[in-house]
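User: I've been trying to design a sequence by hand for this structure and keep getting stuck. Would you show me what you'd pick, starting by listing the structure so we're on the same page?

Assistant: Good idea, let's start from the same input. This is the structure you sent:
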């Protein structure tokens, strides 16, 4: 039985996922395949490295050394997010990432990114024990359109994997998984609509990356179709989803206590569903 783990993104909503994964790590849960998108990519890396609490302490912090977005970052870099800081400076200088433990873990893993030239999802893999390459594909998966520049991997520009494949559950089945555990960052009733902000960002990207811009406009339809697929697979006993039941935090939420509350909610949801999850994984 090959069981996969699929991690949705959602910028700071990813602290919910951090809570879920911290509980699963405490219980010694493992998977044969993991795919993460955007914030889910960073969470996947910490899970593979077995670093309980690292995602929480990186994203919910009062330490100025670990803060990677906001007005100060905008004034310093010209972009709302400093991706190099979160995916290189913080892991190597402040809240250290255990590269040795990560690369020693044999689990099959991929990170979803959107190819800016084609507008299609691609599933990037780390190479050997190349630390810089690993963090670069993490940046590529997480690069937010309009808030960060595209990230080049092997000469190809990539941006937020959520544009083309927000929840890579179909990819997990395509990679041979018999069952899939999905960590979502939205409540069950959520349906995505095309926002004015997305339309504006698509117009800004259309000249340089027309296929990427079209993918941005198609995203709500694709996202909602993926939710329908997940619900169908849940009914068939092939997918087990852990998702929030409380109001989600905003994507760019900065309030420490709100973020910590959402993190704790993720931890509690994992704890609440753990017996049922064990049954799902063992059947």
């Amino acid at each position: 039985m090959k069981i996969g783990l699929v991690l949705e993104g959602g910028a700071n909503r990813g602290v919910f996922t951090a809570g879920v994964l911290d509980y699963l790590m405490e219980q010694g849960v493992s998977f044969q395949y993991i795919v993460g998108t955007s914030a889910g990519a960073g969470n996947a890396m910490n899970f593979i490295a077995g670093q309980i609490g690292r995602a929480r302490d990186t994203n919910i912090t009062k330490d100025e050394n670990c803060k990677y977005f906001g007005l100060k970052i905008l004034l310093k870099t010209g972009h709302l997010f400093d991706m190099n800081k979160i995916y290189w400076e913080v892991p190597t200088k402040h809240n250290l990432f255990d590269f040795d433990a990560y690369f020693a873990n044999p689990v099959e893993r991929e990170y979803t990114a959107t190819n800016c030239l084609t507008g299609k999802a691609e599933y990037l893999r780390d190479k050997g024990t190349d630390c810089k390459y690993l963090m670069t594909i993490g940046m590529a998966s997480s690069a937010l359109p309009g808030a960060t520049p595209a990230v080049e991997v092997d000469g190809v520009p990539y941006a937020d994997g959520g544009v083309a494949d927000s929840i890579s559950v179909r990819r997990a089945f395509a990679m041979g998984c018999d069952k899939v555990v999905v960590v979502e960052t939205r409540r069950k009733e959520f349906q995505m609509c095309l926002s004015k902000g997305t339309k504006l960002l698509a117009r800004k990207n259309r000249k340089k990356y027309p296929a990427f811009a079209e993918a941005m406009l198609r995203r709500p339809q694709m996202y909602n179709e993926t939710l329908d697929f997940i619900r169908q697979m849940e009914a068939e006993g092939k997918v087990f989803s852990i998702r929030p039941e409380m109001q989600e935090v905003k994507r760019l939420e900065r309030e420490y206590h709100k973020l910590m509350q959402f993190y704790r909610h993720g931890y509690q949801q994992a704890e609440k569903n753990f017996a049922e999850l064990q049954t799902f994984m063992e059947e």
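That's my pick for every position. To get oriented when you compare it with your attempt: The chain has a mean pLDDT of 94. DSSP finds eleven helices and eight strands in the chain.
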